[in-house]
Amino acid sequence: MTPTRKIPYSIEVEQALLGAVFVGGEEAMLECCEACVCSTWFYNTRHQLVFEAMLALIGKGEPIDEITVGDKLKSTGNFEAVGGDATLLELSNAVDTSSHLPYYIESLRKTWLRRQLIEQGNRLIESAYDATKEPEESLGTIQNAVYALGESKAENHLSDGHDLARMAGMQADVMLKRKGEPMGLCTGLDDFDKMVGGLLPKKTYIFAARPGMGKSAIGITIARNLVVPRRGSAIPAGYLSLEMGSEELSMRLACNLSRVDYNMLKEGDLSPTKRTDFNQALTAIDRAPIYIDDSSSLTPLQVRAKVRSMKHRYGIKVIFIDYLTLMEPTDKKASREQQVADMSRQMKAMSKELEIPVAVMCQLGRDAQGRRPKQSDLRESGSIEQDADVIAFIHRDEEAEESESMRFGKRTLIIEKQRNGPVGDIPLTFLKPMSLFENYAREDGPVQEECAF
Ligand SMILES: Nc1ncnc2c1ncn2[C@@H]1O[C@H](COP(=O)(O)OP(=O)(O)OP(=O)(O)O)[C@@H](O)[C@H]1O
């Protein structure tokens, strides 16, 4: 028989912490705030109420002592519930000094964390038994909850002048050493890398376009440039393709890398040189650190769980999501705007959590047709505009539309938003049957025919 186990908590530590705040007053309470102590960390409900009263007082800059805390509890109708003056007296006499407060805080956090782990463990067991739930959904939810628990230890985010000077100095050293080379991962699209500085960790990049403008192609091109670079070492990349299956994607990748026209391949009309190029591309892809997941219906939480696992298993340094609104909404009853806002927020949170750049493809509605797109075209949710660090529209202007051929088109990458740099237009060449974007040949010269190696 399993022995009955005691829920982890310590009334003595809770009393000592509250007692230390009574002794140390505002200063001690500020120390609690800095360590992100919340009332839910307390097991005892009375202690929760007392701590909430203390929080309310410090929030208004008012002093903290037995009288003020008692008055606050009376004003919220909780004075009797905590046990009145007797409890406040007991708490204020619990310790003589506030000097051990950091110890009480850490001890309180640990017992709270144990209770949370037990709760999440129980939830996991419950949802594993629940046949109405997809096990992946339960796993994603629990993974995120457990990750959030890991974040509960307050980190020091405060920097003084000394820290700031050191940080700016270090960044300047790196920039000077790079001699104008982008700080982030090079996409291979030179003007984009110059304007945006490549893809940086913890940043979200939106590539948005109307249907058929080349969203997937730009994702494939950048991913390919990273995993099979022209120079330097390969950068492991993840690709979540909610739209296209991995078979189609593998062919696009091979055509992109070998510069083989897919239509010629389909017609069985490939020169021996091109056949060799294609085979070489297959060899390069075979060794490339690219990880594609083509699950088609994932919620934002499941996306995060998958990408987290890609990072842990394969060490990916960047993730591509093709495309945002194909995700399954977490809350099916919420408005579309709220659903998309949740997707966008989760992608931003993921870039911060995993410390990698997140490149998100985004579909624009038909009403953006026939004109230059603008930020408000990301209308399904204003939060995409807000959350993204860089927003780039893939646009085909009127002139380009007229000169477009079956194989070849000109596109403008409109950098519409950049938090830390200029905005502007970047011309690109789109080689359609190769799913390939490249730097625009300004001289209108012939399309380069050689492959990437
Ligand atoms: N084999 C091919 N030959 C010629 N053009 C092609 C070929 N394959 C794709 N295209 C063109 O490339 C464009 C599609 O590229 P891509 O799939 O990258 O765009 P997208 O914006 O992701 O499209 P979607 O709306 O399907 O998400 C379309 O204009 C399509 O006509």
Description:
This protein is α/β, with parallel strands linked by helices. It folds into 2 domains: 11-150, DNAb Helicase, Chain A, CATH 1.10.860.10; 178-439, 3-Layer(aba) Sandwich (Rossmann fold). The protein is 49% helix and 12% strand. The protein is built from 16 helices and 9 strands. It has helices at residues 11-34, 45-59, 66-75, 84-92, 101-129, 135-150, 161-178, 190-196, 215-227, 246-258, 262-266, 272-287, 300-314, 336-354, 382-387, 398-403; strands at 204-209, 237-241, 290-293, 318-322, 358-363, 390-395, 408-418, 424-431, 436-439. It has a 9-stranded mixed sheet with strand order 3-2-4-5-1-6-7-8-9, with helices on both faces. The protein is elongated, with a radius of gyration of 28 Å. The model is unreliable at 443-449 (pLDDT under 50). It binds adenosine-5'-triphosphate. Adenosine-5'-triphosphate (ATP) binds next to helix 9 and helix 11. It catalyses: ATP + H2O = ADP + phosphate + H(+). This is DNA 5'-3' helicase. Residues 178-444 form the SF4 helicase domain.
